[in-house]
Amino acid sequence: MMTIKQGVEPSQHQQLEGDNILSTIRQEAREAFNLGTYQRRNVSNLDHNAEARAYFDLGLRLMLSYQHEMASKAFLSCLALSPYCVLAHGFIALCHSPNYNFKGEAYYESTNHLEDITQHDLLCMFPSQQVADRHSRLAVEKIEELRKLHRGKSTGGGKKGKGKKGKKTGTTSKEEEKSKRDDDDERPTLVSDAEAQLLTAIRVLTCVPGVDSGLSEDIVGRPYANAMRKVYEKYPEDPEIAYCLAESLMVLNAWNLYEFPSGKPYSPDTVEVRAVLERALKIHPQHAGLCHMYVHLSEMSAHPALALEACSHLRADFPHAGHLIHMPTHIDVLVGDYESCVEYNCLAIQADQFAMKISPSTAGKESFYFGYVVHDYHMAVYGAILGGMEGKGMEVAKELNILVNEEMFGEFPYLTSYLETYSALEIHVMIRFGRWRELLEVELPKDPRLMLFRAASIRFARGLALAALGSVEEAKTEAEHFDELRKDPDAEFRILHNNTVKDLLAVDSVMLRGEIAYREGHYEIAFNQLRRAVDMQDKLNYDEPWGKMQPIRHALGGLLLEQGHIDESERVFRDDLKLHPKNPWALVGLIKCLELKGTKCCSKEIVDLRETLRTQREGKWADFDVGVACECCQRN
User: Where are the alpha helices (DSSP H) in 319-451?
Assistant: First the structure.
């Protein structure tokens, strides 16, 4: 067997440490990690080694499940057993590359680790541009090695043998022929053309580690998509090639595929992605990656329900793929199925708890994947808030507080930039369900700057609570404390997925001032503030869950109705139901508007709305008496 090229060789100590980690990963992989049975049919230099095939299959399923770090280690295990499975090199490179949720400046400015150039793969940061570059380079180098090897084989190595006396030159005995066949069986084969072209395209994406983040789209992102398009045109029925093309274009347009809520495509890329995914799904309807991307494509579109068939496969076929189980809930909230949103995020949480137990190094608190774990909790609480499920919402929020809390951030302060915003979910639940007196008893963090979003959320909630309870001056004091926190420079650098804390708190500030003005009796000022807050909420970057978890239209519509502005209140609730179908808060508000109008033309609609509300409130977690559109309103 030929020598395996590894680029820059790691030190002996690094090699030993890396081998120990790899041994641990192999043990983890042998656990009962059920990601379905999907298998890429033909993979060069793999099928003669059953154990290598098992690691490759696991790696591919993990990669398609967006568990990229664990996937890369499974592919490394495959390569240790089958070093000329060059597709494993390419997929390791992809695992370390941009994806739909981690792309652009955020990716390129945080993954350029020069020390990784000489580090063993398993000692490198994840993800790492240097590791992506190394493995895509190894892939194309090994392809060329194999081509040279087979060119030499076809010419007999460039030497002509002299036959024995009495025999023709070049003849061989039966033993020699058998030995030759055995050697050929062990010799790595040429890489298929489809793989070679796919790997060449991946090399385009990963060959410039350290690329300027502002120029990355022009230098590597768009050229990669263009290269993938050429590969796809030649192999349109290959599921991984279709997936890579779709993802390459989606990464360039992440969370900006359609205008929301109009559903108008932002660019021709969106139209192309839809054509590629829908064609591929007709051939491979259960492919995890294709279904995953189709959900993301559909959620911003005018017709999110088109993804429901893909959702059905993601729910059923991948028992331990937490992120795939979660993904259909992006569609659930858009079609008004809040019970499914809560149920499947809870199942996703269970799956991810299993992953955290099996592989704490790749799914634990310090791992990249942990961001997906907390997202499950976030989405479950969002569904509970919209669906009027107080008990379940609070239960899930408190579970997350065990994982994400001030003690954790004190130990790992560098995680605050993208995880601290998840530490205030129970505050959102208490606001939604009007637990005003309980909110006044919630303690502030010991370090408000470390726990900036939680501290600001508590101040915001106290201001709302005091206003609702009639303590207007105290509410104003809380609003001032809130403004001090929201103006902290760090708010600009903390995120809740697609939005900054600065932008989220700016919306809260306007809403809070509107609520206080309302309690002072300054109704027009209050309504103008709340209208402005609604507009600001609508202009936040698209996200699921929405950056502001409680729709401000519920407060605006409810308070307008309370002051007799029935027509505007009706419009507000109708607009909200377009964005959040079947949610009980807007249903209650709209029904009251139509009842007050008292016209016969509304009677049929009122009956239908009441039936929708009744059905929604029969859900197993629908425990709250939704009597008003917002708990800041007065109950009759």
Answer: 322-326, 329-335, 338-358, 360-363, 370-387, 390-403, 406-411, 416-419, 425-432, 436-440
Residue 447 has a pLDDT of 98
Q: Which residue in this structure is represented by tokens 């206080």?
A: 516
Tokens of 402: 């065990």
Alpha helices in 188-305, H assignment, sequence order = 193-206, 216, 222-234, 239-252, 268-283, 288-299
pLDDT (tens digit per residue) in 365-387 = 999 999 999 999 999 999 999 99
- Across residues 278-288, what is the average pLDDT? 98
Count each helix (H run) and each strand (E run) in the chain, helices first. 32, 2
- Return the DSSP state at 276: H
Q: List pLDDT tens digits, range 549-569.
A: 999 999 999 999 999 999 999
Fold of 554-636: 1.25.40
Q: Report CA 273 to chain centroid distance, whole Å.
A: 18
Run of H or E including 142:
helix 129-154
* Tokens (6 digits) for 115: 């020390």
Distance in angstroms (rounded) separating the CA atoms of residues 506 and 484? 12
Question: Residue 159 has what pLDDT?
Answer: 45
Contact predicate 392/347, CB 8 Å? no
Reported as a pLDDT band with limits 50, 70 and 90, residue 24 is: low
Contact present, 343 and 333 (Cβ < 8 Å): no
Task: Extract the tokens encoding 34.
Answer: 């059920």
451 pLDDT band, cuts 50/70/90, is: very high
What is the structure's pLDDT at 168? 46
Reading the block at residue 625, the tokens are 């008496």
Please state, in angstroms and rounded to a whole number, the distance separating the CA atoms of residues 349 and 438. Answer: 27
Joined together, the tokens standing for residue 480 give 């001032």
- Please provide the DSSP assignment of 322-339 as one string: HHHHHTTHHHHHHHT-HH
Judge whether 584 and 626 are in contact, CB under 8 Å. yes
Q: Is the pTM of this model over 0.85?
A: yes
Task: Please report which residue ranges of 564-602 form alpha helices under DSSP H.
Answer: 566-579, 584-597
Domain ranges for the chain, please list them.
1-152+192-212, 554-636
- Asked if the model's pLDDT at residue 310 lies above 60, the reply is yes
| Cβ–Cβ under 8 Å, residues 167 and 105 | no
Contact call for residues 224 and 204 (beta carbons, < 8 A)? yes
Residues in the chain: 636
**Distance in angstroms (rounded) separating the CA atoms of residues 514 and 632:** 12
What is the C-alpha separation between 448 and 177, in angstroms, rounded? 78
> Which residues partner with 499 through β-bridges?
496
